Fold this sequence. Notes:
Blueprint: H1 2-21, H2 32-39, E1 45-48, E2 52-56, E3 64-65, E4 71-76, E5 79-88, E6 91-101, E7 106-110, E8 115-118, E9 129-132, E10 143-149, E11 155-161, E12 170-175, E13 182-183
Antiparallel strand pairs: 1-10, 2-7, 3-4, 4-5, 5-6, 7-8, 8-9, 9-13, 10-11, 11-12
Protein name: Bulb-type lectin domain-containing protein
Organism: Ruminococcus flavefaciens 007c
InterPro entries: Bulb-type_lectin_dom_sf
Amino acid sequence: MKKTKILSALMALTLVSVPATGIAGSxxxxxxxxxxxxxAYAPSSRKVDGSYxxxxxxxxxxILSTGExxxxxxxxxxxxxxxxxxxxxxxxxxxxxxxxxVGGNSLLLQGDGNLVAYNCASPNDFSRPTAHSNTWMxxxxxxxxxxxxxxxxxxxxxxxxxxxxxxxxxxxxWNSTTGKMYRI
Length: 184
């Protein structure tokens, strides 16, 4: 009788602690893809002021995202891909909306307004560009560049004034519907 009470108490304690701690060993009721998708949200825009942001080829984690049910920008094995999320039968799927073959294994959002793909032999080797957006602007101290994914699935590059009469004004330089990525 005592063994039954102890065993029931342990089982009740386990049932109470698993939802609270989230630790259930290998008995997860949802797929690993759902975990990755929930953890993979990125901002819808990235401000680059001066230097650059480097993104390595990653098929799972987006560079930019408009949210759970929106558009995502990925850099996957040499392709810059804009995807749209949708749900069917309780599962999340993504389909490709726009693809640019840019080559390389690293994508840089540069501080001079240029979006450039590089084929890097090492983490800091940016000597071999493979494609660019041809939006290079000289570095001006009074501007920064904004790389933004809109809610309509269009990637934009803006030059934004930091000060003066036009402070905060966004000047469009490139977008993914009419702009091209030029191979080098």
